[in-house]
Specification:
By secondary structure, the protein is an alpha+beta fold. The protein is built from six helices and ten strands. It comes from Vulcaniibacterium thermophilum.
Length: 244
């Protein structure tokens, strides 16, 4: 699943199409995507894992789900969910969910919850977490109402950074650890962004898909489905403390 930093990169790459008119529309979406033909793209935004395209009187949301992807000026040969061609290039979206928004994005999205946004509010994140004392931290980090943009890679790596076991409960975390959780959700997201832009992201993974802890050499633990979210988890029982 593309995580928030990847959607920010998409937004930056798609800015070249802002102000351009849609010349052709293709795709197998059940939505009435043909109505985008002739429309001018007014702006692009990102919120968490959502990519938003503003066409003036309405906006289109692209959610990449688990297997979604996009390509610019390089169609894959597979049938896209949506393809838009502009005079200066094209963008193709695959295996994603599309939705025309019923209202303006500012009325629908809490930008202070987006870990990559200038409006990010860590104090609000701490308040939301304190209201979920029984939640496992592995689930709390994936809660898009609290940490919009955080996905499974960021979850695993943040918990390793702050030395917290993924099955710890939010309410059992000391205040210092809760603060570290919130701070690192944002800091690691920006590290992820920088590494992905430099094409070195996987080289920096410490535990995600790894088998040996780089801190103490212990065998890493792996669970195919952990927590309510039932997502993959990698952690070290030696250096990541369980708070219950």
């Amino acid at each position: 699943m593309p995580e928030g930093p990847s959607i920010v990169i998409l937004r930056e790459e798609a800015e070249r199409f802002v102000g351009r008119r849609v010349l052709e529309v293709e795709g197998n979406s059940r939505l009435d995507i043909a109505r985008l033909k002739g429309r001018t793209l007014r702006g692009v935004r990102s919120w968490g894992k959502h990519f938003l395209m503003d066409f003036g009187s309405e906006a289109l949301r692209v959610h990449f789900m688990l297997w979604g992807r996009y390509r610019i000026d390089d169609p894959s040969g597979a049938t896209p969910r949506l393809a838009l061609r502009f005079r200066n290039g094209r963008i193709d979206f695959y295996a994603c969910s599309l939705r025309f928004l019923d209202d303006a994005p500012d009325a629908l999205y809490d930008w202070s919850a987006d870990v990559m946004a200038d409006e990010w509010d860590p104090a609000a994140a701490r308040r939301k977490l304190r209201a979920r004392p029984d939640a496992l931290v592995c689930d709390a980090l994936l809660d898009q109402d609290v940490f919009a943009g955080v996905g499974n890679i960021i979850k695993n790596e943040v918990l390793f950074r702050i030395r917290v076991h993924p099955e710890s409960t939010v309410g059992a975390l000391p205040a210092r650890k809760l603060g570290e959780l919130v701070a690192q959700a944002r800091e690691y997201s920006f590290d992820f962004y920088a590494w992905k832009k430099a094409y070195v992201l996987k080289k920096h993974w410490q535990v995600h898909t790894r088998s040996v802890c780089p801190r103490d050499g212990a065998r890493l633990q792996y669970r195919r489905a952990l927590g309510r979210a039932q997502r993959r988890a990698f952690w070290c029982d030696v250096c990541q403390r369980l708070y219950r």
